[in-house]
Design brief:
It is a single chain. This protein is extended. The protein contains two helices and no strands. The protein has one domain. It is 42% helix and 0% strand. It is mainly alpha-helical and 43 residues long.
């Protein structure tokens, strides 16, 4: 996870990625959504 965090942190962006962003994402993750498919007409 931290390897990916380091790689993503190197990308310039107006809203910098911080370690708290990763932690929040993991806290919100729910295994039930693992195979959840989002259907969009405009893709």
């Amino acid at each position: 996870m931290y390897k990916t965090f380091d790689e993503l942190s190197e990308i310039e962006h107006s809203n910098l990625l911080e370690e708290d962003d990763i932690k929040s994402t993991l806290e919100a993750y729910d295994r039930q959504y693992y195979n959840f498919t989002i259907f969009r007409k405009n893709i």
